[in-house]
Amino acid sequence: MRPVSILASLRRHAVVPRIILAVLLSGAMAGITASAAHANPRANDSANAHAIHASTELDLLSHNLGRVLEHPAIHNLFLSRSWDSDNPANLSSSAINNFTQTLVSDGYFDGAGQYGVHSPSFTGSDGQALICPSPTVDGETAFGAIIAWLVCETSASPIPFTTLTGIPGADDNSLYVVYLPVGVRVNDIVAKSCDDFGAYHFNADTPSWDTFFGVPFVHNRDLVFAVVPAECAHGSFDSLTALASHEIIEAATDPDIGKGWIDDSQLIFNGDILKKGEASDICELNEGDFGMPPVQMPGGLLVSPYWSNSAGVCVPIVRHVNLDEAGLPTSVPHFATFNGESVVLPFNAVITDASTHTYSFPSPVDDPNPGIRYITSAQPTTIDGSKDVHDVATYITQYFLTVQATPPAAAIADASLTPSAWEDSGSSVTVSTDSQIVLDANNRYAFDHWSDDTTGAAPLTAILMDGPKTATANYVLQHLLTVNVSGLDANSTTITNGAITLGTASASAPLVVWVNDGPLALDASANVNGPDGKQYFFQGFSPAAPATLTAPFTTTAQYETIAQLIADALANGGISGPGAGGQAIVFTQQFAAVQADMGGHKYAQALGDAQSFISHVQAQSSKKVTTSIARTFQLDALLVYHNALCLAGAAGQITPATAAADYTFYSNLVASLGGTVLPPC
């Protein structure tokens, strides 16, 4: 059997009046004071306390030969027959029972193992039994009245191993936690709940069943209990759990007043041993030597810390994990992964000291709009619970750069095309492509220009990434065009495709050039003036150039002199009739004079000789010369005339007025013949 407590002995023998009992009990209010109950229940300074005595053994608590509750079996007693209707919903019996169950299972008692307290349990709860008179009158109760009521609730019944009320009987591990409803205060004259104390724990005796060599018998057993007035929580569930946990851990480590694990420096029996010398008192905010606010456990409970000799710090030590982000817009989800589960940012968690956890931030995060995403360089992290963690993942915006080539056949073979990729917002990205994509010796794709979100005609270009961008390299299919020359002697001609000059060609140096697939308007210089004044006139291509180039093509630009043209006309009937041969000789001689003038740089004289030739041809048109041949001779001569006019003006051989008159002659005649009028020099 355990010896009865001092208080129980005094009460049983009625040798101390109530006021003296109250004075003694006023020192036993080992709970949180009223001022502490009003403190911010979410504050946490465990890191600061831990820093003071980290890893330092500091034996503030001594055993003092008292017992502990080796395996605390907590049973809740609600001093009300209608608790849930008498109290706010957040202080319901189920909420308090859930708190108790969590308290015994979430590691709160781990630090008490050094004091011999292990494996706590929750045995359930009961309300006020009908057979036990209420200790409350007009919203007040007293210490002695509560003890009397508890004895009634826990007393052994005549039936072995049962109680009068049916609640679990007391044994060496029993701890009854009495919850007083809102509106009920403990008033023992010199000590009042919520003014002088927030909660308390104590012990008394209660009749309880036991066995002796297998024979049941009843004897007085130590009754360990705590009293938690809901009124002192001021409507806060967190304050209630802080009050209750304070008393529960102390009731487990020093269940018998003045014994168990207490601070011997407070041993003088002046009340301090019961107000400052217990495990939770040392850590009570604004009261204890190492006071700190209540601690939020990983499961969310707010509990009172208590002293650990082995750690030299108040426990439980918890760490706070705060994860957040910067740079993500509201249009995307803000989340991270904590211990393998997705959590919404900002995320706050409480972890126990020295516990291992992992977290990571997603990267990339896609925007609802295509081509936009957000990335972070934050790496997956493992934390060891040795400190608080505050980590903000900084995200940057990226836009997708699509780089492509057209037509598709060119894209397939474009070896140096910059790959499509995600690029940082605001960056300037250089994109490149092949200047040429060779298909075979005669066919290729040639880069032409960039389009879509960038421009340029060079294979390299830069693009500013201020949004999703597309850069398209446009290619044209080209074929090899070869132009040979005949009839030009050592002279060369200029080959054009419409308004585009392709290059020059001569008998010794044919023009070999790449030309775009598509419409072709191949042409050559209509008249080539040899250095000796000899004139060559373009007669066309052989074979004739197609109107549309779709494959490699080879042709010859054919030229003839005026003498050859006259001979051809004579042979083909263009010059006919009596004296046709002589007429041909005259035409040849007349134009030979023009050529001689050109070769001798007598350009003004060449103008007159050319007019004579033209006049002679006009006179013979439809006579000895067909109209068609006469037109050809005139247009050819007019080509030379325009050339001589420009050279004469440049050499100062004619006045501007003469040049203007000569140009009028030229342009009017060419127009009348249906030829192409060249611009003034």
Shape: rod-shaped
The amount of helix comes to: 25-40%
Head-to-tail CA distance between termini: 135 Å
Number of domains: 3
What is the CA-based Rg, rounded?
56 Å
Report the uncertain regions. Answer: 1-56
Number of strands: 35
Quick one: biggest sheet? 13 strands, mixed
The structural class is alpha+beta
Instruction: Report the total helices.
Output: 15
Strand content: 25-35%
* Average predicted confidence as pLDDT: 89
Q: Explain this structure to me?
A:
The protein is α+β, with helices and mostly antiparallel strands and 681 residues long. The protein is 26% helix and 31% strand. It has 3 domains: 6-316, no CATH class; 319-396; 562-672, no CATH class. It contains 15 helices and 35 strands. Helix 13 (603-620) runs antiparallel to helix 14 (627-651). Mean pLDDT is 89; it is low at 1-56.
Quick recap of the structure?
This protein has 681 residues and is of the alpha+beta class. The protein folds into three domains: 6-316, no CATH class; 319-396; 562-672, no CATH class.
